[in-house]
Each structure stands twice: as C-alpha cells, then as structure tokens.
Amino acid sequence: MASTSHSVNTDSIENVLYEKRQKIYPREVHGLFAYLRIASVIILLGLFYGCAWLQWDGHQALLWDLPARKFYVFGLIFWPQDFVYLAFMLIIAGLSLFFFTALAGRLWCGYACPQTVWTETFLWIERLVEGDRSSQMRLDKAPWSLQKLRIKTVKHTLWIVFSLFTGFTFVGYFTPIQDLTVKIMTFSTGPWETFWVLFYAFATYGNAGWLREQVCKYMCPYARFQSAMFDNDTLVVSYDEKRGEPRGSRNKKLDHKASGLGDCIDCGLCVQVCPTGIDIRQGLQIECISCSACIDACDFVMDNMGYDKGLIRYTTQHDLDGEKTRILRPRIYIYGAVLLTLVAGLSYSIVMRVPLELDIIRDRNQLYRETSDGLIENIYTLKVMNMDNSQHQYRLRAEGIDGLELIIEQPQIIVESGTVADITARLRAEESDLKSRSNKVLFYLEAEDNQELRITKEGRFLGPG
Known about the structure:
44% of the residues lie in helices and 20% in strands.
C-alpha cells in the first residue's frame, strides 16, 4: 500500500509540474476598461508605426543613427556625450513604474506593456478570422479539413505579415525608414538589417501569437517583485468576497439574500474573459495583469441581474476589510515629488542644453616647446562638435595667462550641422608670465551668428615651471 500511495503522489506531482499547457480563449468583453484598453492599444501602436515616418528639418524625426553616433529626436540631435539624458530617462521610467504600481497595481501590464498591446492586436486578428470564443474552441477541436486549413492559414498569414511590418518598423528607427523601404522593395538590405527585421518579426509572432500569457506568467520578472511595491492601500482588481459569497446560480427574480446567497451567480464570465486564465475570486495572484476585463464582465452581469455593480472592482485590501483607505499616503507623495523633480530637472536640462561641444586634446608628443622668439608654446587639437540643426561659423579665444597669444591654422572655423571639426590651436606665452609648471587656461567658443551658442572649457598650459 505504501509503495502504491507513493507512486500515486509522484504521478500527481509530475502532472502538476509537467502538465501540458491548456490554450486560453479569452472571451471578448465590452465596458469602460475594455474601451480604455482599446484606446491605449490604438494610441501606442499608432505612435510606434507612425512616428517612424515623421520628418523634421529634412530628416527623420526619430532616428537612432548608430553608425554616425547621432540620435535625432524631434529637432534635437543627441550624441554619445549626451548619454546622461538617457540615464535620467531610464531612472524616471523605473520610478514611474514604482509610483503607478504603488498607486494602482499593474497598470503598466494591463494597458501599456508591449506584450499586452501586441497580444491584444493578435487576439483581434484571431477573432476576425476564426470568430468568437466558442467558434475558436469548436474549430480547434474539429478534425483537420480544407476549411480548417484555410482558416488557420489566413490567420497565421495575417499574423506573419503584421509581425514582418512590426520588424520593418523597428529597424526603421535605426535605418532611415524611407531608405529601408527602397532596400526591401529592391531586395538590397544588408545582413544586419535583414537579421533584425526577421528577428523582431519572429519575436512578435512568437510572443503575441503563441506564448501570450506564458510571457506574463513565467518570463516576465515584474510579476515576481510586484508584491514588494504593494501595500494594503494599493488599488488592485479584487473580488468582494463578503458581498459575493456564498455564490450560486439563481433565477433573476429570486430574492437571493433571503435564500442565503451572495451576489455572485457563479457564471464564470470573469474567468472566461481573463487573458491569463485565472479566477479573480481566488484572490490576488501574480498572474493578474490588471487588465480589468473581469470588472467589465462582472458589471455587465450585475447590471442584468439588477444588482449593484462593483462586485469585482478596483479597491484596496483595507477597504475589503472594512478599514479606512488612504490612497494618497506618504510613499505616494515621496514617489510623486521625486518623480516631478527628476522630470522638471531633465526638462530644464534639455531646454537649457547648448548644442555645442568642445573637446581639448593636448599634443602628447611634447609637453611644450620654445619658439625662436623665446616664447613657451603648447599645441592643442580642438574638436568642435556642432550639435545644432544648421551650419555655424565660430570664433575662438583663450584667456588665463597675461599676454597669452592664440594662433589657429584655419582662417575660419565653420562646422556643418551634426559634424565634428578638428582645429589645431597653438598657445604662446612669456615664461615670466607662467605662475607654475601647469597653468589653467580657458577656451571660449562662440557662434558668430548666435550668441547663445557658446561654451567655455578649461585646459592646461605647461611650461618649465
């Protein structure tokens, strides 16, 4: 008996650990949150596919030109030296995730995550071709036939075309999309362009078409650490157990309270509409992405039954326990204040940013040299980086040592937009005017046609000491 019991237990454990995935067929739902989710999908996909085609001052508005190490963002040109802005944006994005999660749970997952957005689109294509939930289930259970093969072929063809267009658009942010279009039409794309179009298309097709909820359940790390950002005052999608239990089916005309029943009629619609296949009535689970589909479905049922809406709703654990809820609490104020400060600081920094950079490189072949006139001379290579949208002519001067003389080989310093000019500059000074072996000098660079384009950089002038 003992060995038999052990065998049964082992088999049951293996069934749990290695159970074959059951495909989830989310039921289409209508309601406030469904419309918000549709609006979010349309806006985000519209931005992704549309912004790649926007033009600004003769070039693509959003372009990460990696070979040229230039990044175009709506009239601004950023260089690798501007990496600090990217770091700030990543910090703001992370803090925003903390803020909104502490405030209202997994809003990002339910409405803005790329996995959610593209999965919603693939589900829409699937419903368009195969029909509603019941039709999809009947089709999958039916034996293979020419009709089934035709429907499946049409669906996967649309998925693949949409995925390829997604991969093409993604690469279009790194290779000018108009040039990329010509290359694809003439089959002349480079190996890396071809690879990334196909790779991103394959990732979209696999994640949104096949893996779907498995990405949220098993691959996304956010579900694992979200609880660290939740507390009893966080708004989350919850089932009101006190109001809903005991659940049970009943006639609409039945006085369910007199019969000892709760408001839940156990219809199962909240489970059928869930894209991850969970039962929200079992409490908050890591698989829940807060898409709120169950809220819309339950409100529809409650309205039909003549009950108050909100059996499933956005609420807090304190509210469910009958305690006072503080949605605006210290951690929300702290997150909000820090977030606003960072956004304000980044915005101010970008607005006040001078699209001009000056790098000073001393000649390392010799520390200094003495001219025939007895002057001490240092030689520099100045790299003038014009990060503005138009060409400029600049004037250069140097100060810091009495009687300092600046000599540049180029009669005019003209730098095209988005280019770097190498300027050879010589500084000469009397040895008697040098206060030490290493002396501070300041280089002033200013555009002749725009006094706001000016920058000051410090250099070192070496002498005998």
